[in-house]
Amino acid sequence: MIAHNPRGRGLARWQRRMHFAVRCVRPGIAPVSGTLKRTCGLARARCFTRTRNAAVITFEVLAFDRRRAITRADAG
Question: How far apart are CA 42 and CA 53, in angstroms?
Answer without folding.
Answer: 10
